[in-house]
Amino acid sequence: xxxxxxxxxxxxxxxxxxxxxxxxxxxxxxxxxxxxxxxxxxxxxxxxxxxxxxxxxxxxxxxxxxxxxxxxxxxxxxxxxxxxxxxxxxxxxxxxxxxxxxxxxxxxxxxxxxxxxxxxxxxxxxx
Length: 127
Known about the structure:
The chain is mainly α.
């Protein structure tokens, strides 16, 4: 009889990532370290150099707004990496809004942006 639930690397990573004690630090390539330990640049240099602080909601929303204004449309899922990140952020916020998991101010700002650019997606460019 198995006393533990079935698990995989994804739910282990997710459980560590959501740990509120900030005991873990996350690097590229799905590497995880302890926040109080210093790791050798010689051994783990590339992953450590690629580690970036997560942007705040406000910074991500600002990036989304700038993208929409510059391109006169919302981001798409089939473009470059930066656009895909913005697309995912937008869809996560819309999903949270439908589940009432986002505060009203954020929901309003997201919905206003979507309303402003939703018709742009339907326009077809003619060569």
